[in-house]
Amino acid sequence: MKSLLFGLVFLISFTGYSKFILIPMDFETQDNHLKAYGISYWLLEKEQKIQWLLNYRGGSFLSPYSEDLERECTIRGVSFEIKSNAETKQILEIINSPSQNMEAVLLEKAPKIAVYSPQGNVPWDDAVTMVLEFAEIPYETIYDEGVLNDELLLYDWLHLHHEDFTGQYGKFYRAYRSAPWYILEKKKAEALAESLGYAKVSKAKLAVAKKINAYVIGGGFMFAMCSATDSFDIALSAEGTDICEPMFDGDPSDSGYQNKIDYSKTMAFTDYILEKDPMVYEYSSIDMTSTRNIPKTKDYFTLMDYSAKWDPIPTMLCQNHTAVVKGFMGQTTAFRPNQIKSNVLVMGKNKLNDEARYIHGIKGKGFFTFYGGHDPEDYQHRVGDPRTELELHPKSPGYRLILNNILFPAAEKKKQKT
User: Fold this and answer.
1) Rounded CA separation 28/232 (Å)
2) Exposure string for 67-84, b = 16+ CB within 10 A, e = fewer
3) Alpha carbon separation from 220 to 41, 46, 131, 214 (Å, rounded)
4) pLDDT reported for residue 4
């Protein structure tokens, strides 16, 4: 009853305008799904009213009409429809109906975004900075020194990509130990750790991981992709234990360190077995990259369907114009389902291989989402490969999942039932 009354009150207040702009997000009528998110963020920056219409035409956006908004959509190539007050009221009544798996969520403020990245990284080093640039959504970068100085408190949303929080330099040792870039990056990481007061890179990265963990517990939102997902949890679980071999930190790992792993400290994963061999390009049994036997033509994952009215959070995170998303690989491609904690939602799953691709959970007062793979439009990205040109993929379902997470902190939160 409370939810229904809220919906009716908002329906009356939001339709007090003469005209509206609907930004549809279905496949047929939206020419640039990715830039549509940038329009929504632009409105939030201007403190304009905007609603996210969950499950209505692919998760459309609705805002009162203005010439500035119409002009901005036209300039950015975003499809839009001008709706009368009566048409808008009808749309919202349909959405508010108990018989429809839809919900209208008010977006309240533009979240301040931080990307965890060392100085000098170009935007196309990871998918999130690439799509933020393309969608014209502003962000700032932060790295170890800033995190340790509690600068995360300035941000609502934090992104981690292909960082290694275990101190093993991405497990690139076998393939790249003689490469000039690997040698240089290792020296830079060691110098940074020393400047921060840590004898080893693994200890510095653990301190950073613990700060990020505290940020989430305190109410922050963390989104991670590729190897940042499992290496983050592994670092937290290995606190007080040396899991690095001599080529990484100069001394042997602790004897029997697998038995010293504390899974209670992790966000998403449990019961995993660490990969001890430094010549293997893998951290643990969490990732299924090396055991996958799926041809590229059949590599797709399916998004789960949630109740928009009862579970708006996972519904928001899964908004798309298709329920089936083509797969893509990375150092960490997919998560083994039996090593995901029971309180974590699996929002995207490859049913052919029984692997989780997209998961979400709550930690303290905050939220986290882990997304397997490196680049949704580059199936098997390798070191040195050219950047993805998002102008060629303006309707990318895989990139839409990233941008759902960008807008998620802007929404009024309701406790989920799932």
Assistant:
1) 39
2) eebeebbeebebbbeebe
3) 19, 23, 21, 9
4) 46
> What does the radius of gyration of the chain's CA atoms come to, in whole angstroms?
22
Q: Considering the entire predicted model, what is its pTM?
A: 0.94
CA distance 39 to 372: 27
Give whole-number Cα distances, 231 to 92, 125, 162, in Å. 44, 18, 9
pLDDT above 90: residue 7: no
Confidence bin at 2 (pLDDT 50/70/90): very low
pLDDT tens-digit profile of 333-388?
999 999 999 999 999 999 999 999 999 999 999 999 999 999 999 998 776 778 89
Q: Do domains 2-107 and 113-410 have the same CATH topology?
A: no
Whether the CB-CB separation of 105 and 315 falls below 8 Å is answered with no
Give the integer Cα–Cα distance in Å for 117 and 154. Answer: 16
| Edge-to-edge strands, sheet with 366-371 | 140-142, 113-116, 157-160, 221-225, 366-371, 355-363, 345-350, 300-303, 324-326
Q: In whole angstroms, what is the distance from residue 55 CA to residue 101 CA?
A: 7
CA 212 to chain centre: 15
Which amino acid, one-letter code, is at 374?
Answer: H
Q: How far is CA 399 from CA 203, 320, 384, in A?
A: 33, 10, 21
Q: Coil, strand or helix: which one is 224?
A: strand
DSSP one-letter string for 107-154: E-S---EEEE--TT--GGGSHHHHHHHHHT---EEE-HHHHHTTGGGG
Tokens found for residue 266 = 């992790």
CATH of domain 2-107: 3.30.70.790
Of 346, 351, 305, 301, give the one whose Cα is nearest residue 326: 301
> What pLDDT is attached to residue 3?
47
Q: Lowest mean pLDDT: which of 1-15, 128-142, 387-401?
A: 1-15
Top-level CATH class of 113-410?
Answer: alpha beta
Q: Parse the chain into domains and list their residue ranges.
A: 2-107, 113-410
pLDDT above 90: residue 57: yes
Structure tokens that stand for 232 in this block? 């983050």
